[in-house]
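Quick question, first post here. What does this chain look like in 3D?
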Amino acid sequence: MSRKSASFKGLVMGMVLLICIVIVFMLIKGAWNSPDKEAAAVVSEFYQFEQEGEFSSSWNLFHSTMKEKFNKGHYIQDRAHVFMNHFGVETFDFVLGEPEKIDQWKISEEGPAIKNVYKILITQTYKGKYGNFDLKQEVFAVEEDEEWKIVWDYNQ
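> Answer (accepted):
Ran it through. Tokens below.
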């Protein structure tokens, strides 16, 4: 075999290997960035901020409809007052359930229908002056301006 032929074969083998690596990377990246994982990630981030008492940061993860419901300053005061002062706790633990895709959903009966929604059950465990208790809430993650945002359910 000539030197040119061996060099060409090496180049082809290198290109095939590079293409395989790129394909594997794209498959892995695609699995990490699947919509259900992105939705769960924003819900987890929201409750990590809440857990740390960073209510300003958690408020920033709300969908615009939620921001209309709660003035930022009022939300920060109210969350700290109710959860920390009334419950007598400094923080809480939380567990996320599996994301469940919902094709179409409304925040409230009068609200517009939203597509591509994920419902995630969040369980917050508090240990405070009134004993230990769990608070369970279905939280919804929706896309707004290509970012996942948090919405709570106000349907009757």
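Residues 34-152 form a domain with the Nuclear Transport Factor 2; Chain: A, fold (CATH 3.10.450.100).
The radius of gyration is 23 Å.
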